[in-house]
């Protein structure tokens, strides 16, 4: 019985770390403000970068893994001072990979 009592905290620590790594990292407020649009919606905008993101490791679902990759790409779009992104590649396999063209659009009205 003493072995299980000693292993219990380690098991809880391991499970907690696993669950934390299984969730997508939340977006910064700046990345949340970037609009995900179709190519036809950025015709009057300046293309500022091509961004990409990946997610590897264990996730609770393929959706969470894809979201993590998209979040990484959106954070890169923030660094490029983009206001909009057009997803050009969304790949889900053992690791998720996404790519997008990032645009800076002027506000109208």
Summarize the structure.
With 109 residues, this protein is α+β, with helices and mostly antiparallel strands.
Molecular structure report:
- With 109 residues, the protein is α+β, with helices and mostly antiparallel strands.
- It is 39% helix and 28% strand.
- It has helices spanning 2-21, 29-32, 62-79, and strands at residues 35-36, 46-55, 84-92, 96-104.
- It has a 4-stranded mixed beta sheet.
- A hairpin with a 3-residue loop joins strand 3 and strand 4.
- The termini are far apart.
- DSSP helix fraction: 25-40%
Query: From the alpha-carbon coordinates, what is the Rg to the nearest angstrom?
Result: 19 Å
Average pLDDT metric: 83
Distance between the termini: 71 Å
Uncertain residue segments: 10-21
Beta-strand percentage?
Answer: 25-35%
H/E element sequence: HHEEHEE
Number of helices: 3
Shape: elongated
Major sheet: 4 strands, mixed
Number of strands: 4
Strand order of the largest sheet: 1-3-4-2
- Supply the helix-strand structural class: alpha+beta
